[in-house]
Amino acid sequence: MRKIYFIFFLLLAQLSGYSQVVTTIPAFPTADQEVTIIFDVSKAQDTRARGLLGKTDDVFLWSGAGSTETGNAFEFQPTGQTDFAKPFEPGKMTSLGNNRWQIKLVPRQYFNVPANRPIRRLGLLLKSGNGQAQTEDVFIRIYENRLSVARLSPTEKNFFVDPSQDLLVRATASQRANLTLLLDNTTVATAANQDSVRFTLNTGTQPGQRRTVIFRAQTATETAADTFYFTVRPQSPVAALPAGLRDGITYQGANRATLVLFAPQKSFVYVIGEFNNWSPAPQYLMNRTPDGNRYWLELNNLPAGQEVAYQYLVDGTLAVADPYAEKILDPNNDRFITATTYPNLKAYPTGASGIVSVLKTNQTPYTWKVNNFQRPDPKNMVVYELLVRDFVGTRNYKTVADSIPYLKRLGINAIELMPIMEFSGNDSWGYNPIFYFAPDKAYGTKNDLKAFIDKCHENGIAVILDMVLNQADYEFPYVRLYWDGTKPAANNPFFNQQATHPFSVFFDFNHESPATQAYVERVNRFWLEEYKFDGYRFDLSKGFTQKNTGSDVGAWSAYDASRVTIWKRIYNQIRSVDPTAYVMLEHFADNTEEKELADYGMLFWGNLNDPYRTLAKGFNANPNWISYKQRGWQSPYVVGYMESHDEERLVYDVRQNGGASGNYNTRTLPTALDRAKLAAAFFLPIPGPKLIWQFGELGYDVSINENGRTGAKPIRWEYLQDPERRKLFRVYQELIKLKLTQPAFQTSDFTLNVDQPVKRITLNHPSMTVFLIGNFDVQLQATQANFPRTGKWYDYFTGQEVEVTNTQTALSLQPGEFHLYTTEKLATPEAGLVPYSGSSTGTVTGLEPVLDDILLFPNPTADAAMVELENSYFGPVELQLGLPSGQMVRSQTVQKTTTRLRQPISLQQLPTGLYWLKIRQGDRQTVRKIMKW
């Protein structure tokens, strides 16, 4: 036995394994004494911490205290710490410079821990005031007022060493004591009446040998000890992968499962979990395949039908969850998931660290009610895009399922779910995925998701999954397994070190890599087969390229033959699994490329948000790019939309920035809702699939930037109590019904004349012809109708029958007025859905043949003009005088009893300017201009 060589330290150390990120003064903090906590943000591992680098202010502590050493470290929290997206002033940090921050606090007081409750550890992270940047969670131990010991080196609890390596051990005690160092229960050194030690151990030469080191301090009345373990690096057994196995979990019976990890360029892998106390043991060293690309191990004696948590410990330095896991447990976020959303969620296992994966043998399969669902024709879908978080207050699948009757009443035939696979945190749009086979527990159980899809299918509604395979967040195992400290390593089999395009937010997949291609194929197969999703909308599909265009958006959007090849391969793989599955791309590339892929069978998001918002505000724009014919495509595979999750909301923009003329103001809510009806009337009837963003049918008027662009938004089911918003809903409902039930709305013979403020759409079909005309201006428009043909027409929303003898008959359209005419009589909706069918904005205009036998003189005039009308009509003649905005200022009715009528029109007491005079007799009318000077 040797005496320990000792040295006294000036101690400034954090003593829990996070010494590089956090240090404390004193080294042994206690519950009732002030402790100084110092963060070095430059040492943080979470990529979100980058946003804290270089700051000199606006950095705050977010923290909690726990009464046990391994339990919930946020059991107690400081008063007022409730909104992560806002600064928490009691936690404001003081800058020490060089990305170092300090705060002083007394744990019991700061965290409001009762005097009778112990404090055993603190959970800490630093964040920016708005929560957009943050470190990972860090935990520090809180000591009792008694003899304590801690290790300064090595900091790890359980680690690997090379054979015959010299291992430096440094440890400290909270007071002078007799110190002992034991290796595998054999005393190797001692020292008397010291408080710090330094000693070098030899690790040994036996591969795979696990050794135990205990540092013990003892006084006359107290004893304290610290234990750590190290293992001599093993040599992986080489064995071929048994037939029938694939990456991830293969269940082989009630108590058996085989795990397979694709991990090329790694030296050895252990399976660690609840079955071995999260420690590498020889029997859990995985076999390595002869090519060195995979590791596999059969687990036996698993508890049948019970969840078991596990990880892969790779090269002895990094423990990750299974990248193919269908369920994970997250120590930082699961505690915020309620029992209502996820009943009986498995507790995070004691002894684990970081995200863990879960396996379960003998699972009871979900019993599907619908096994023969007939998907809607992709050429005629009406897709409702929704985010579970912002659609229902409970934020779970069950409540969304309860809302299906509402969506069925609206008439849609497909739902597009924003990403629902496990993403970072619980509050997200979902475009930061970390586990591609696991539904995020923040929305409910996997059977809740299946029941939702099943119920959609019962109601004739397809379900499309928003799939994010362009990028992944840091916690994705294949990001972490090949990481150079700041970005994916050069040897990462899945990811580019730098994105090849300017729009990547997280880490960019290399879709020419065989590893990525295999993973993508498995992911796409999984959700189709396991959850019966009806297809995918692929996020940022234009990013699936290895052609590096840097920050040049134009070059990135140009035709890319390699990207076309990638997408045809993915499409073929999907269709080999499910021949009718939808493949929808958010592409926005050169039309030559989109046409080639559309003609191959793929659907494309068609972003018409800008022109429709512009039109709704009263300014002219041309939305003809919504037409597949305008693009020169073979099939109507443009999924056009006025709104999606990614654009400003139409009614909000109208209310903030809409145009006005006279008393006609688009910014008032009733008029803004009328403008939304007008926009919908020139959107939904255009042949081809359409997409609606949630609550657009009720005129959602909260900005996309409310609470931050991707932040949670108010849920507005109370809109249904507003009669005017219900009218907008009914207009959507009627237009969707026409689109899905009337063949004319699915025709390939249609024309769009939509370049002028008065816009026209014609749909030709053997069953009937449809003609839409609408005034997008904020002023009254007198124009020729340009009906497609003469004959009898029916105004759908008013039910009025119109006999057209002259296709060029003049019409007078109020601002925002539109008509949907059909040559066949259809059931008329209830009155009042559109303003000109009975609301205060005026009577129906422009429905009858024009009068052409009228004289109006003098014009201009100072105070009055004379109307002279000569024809064989006898009866009432209505004369209305109005402003250019469409507002009527005077009205009178006179009886015509002879062939000639002369009637003065007074302009006295009216300001100078331009006026409109509308003259109606029987089924004929006209509009003339009068200038007062």
Automatic annotation (TrEMBL):
<feature type="domain" description="Glycosyl hydrolase family 13 catalytic">
    <location>
        <begin position="385"/>
        <end position="739"/>
    </location>
</feature>
<protein>
    <recommendedName>
        <fullName>Glycosyl hydrolase family 13 catalytic domain-containing protein</fullName>
    </recommendedName>
</protein>
<dbReference type="Pfam" id="PF00128">
    <property type="entry name" value="Alpha-amylase"/>
</dbReference>
<dbReference type="InterPro" id="IPR013783">
    <property type="entry name" value="Ig-like_fold"/>
</dbReference>
<dbReference type="InterPro" id="IPR026444">
    <property type="entry name" value="Secre_tail"/>
</dbReference>
<dbReference type="InterPro" id="IPR006047">
    <property type="entry name" value="GH13_cat_dom"/>
</dbReference>
<dbReference type="InterPro" id="IPR014756">
    <property type="entry name" value="Ig_E-set"/>
</dbReference>
<keyword id="KW-0732">Signal</keyword>
<dbReference type="Pfam" id="PF18962">
    <property type="entry name" value="Por_Secre_tail"/>
</dbReference>
<dbReference type="InterPro" id="IPR017853">
    <property type="entry name" value="GH"/>
</dbReference>
<comment type="similarity">
    <text>Belongs to the glycosyl hydrolase 13 family.</text>
</comment>
<feature type="signal peptide">
    <location>
        <begin position="1"/>
        <end position="21"/>
    </location>
</feature>
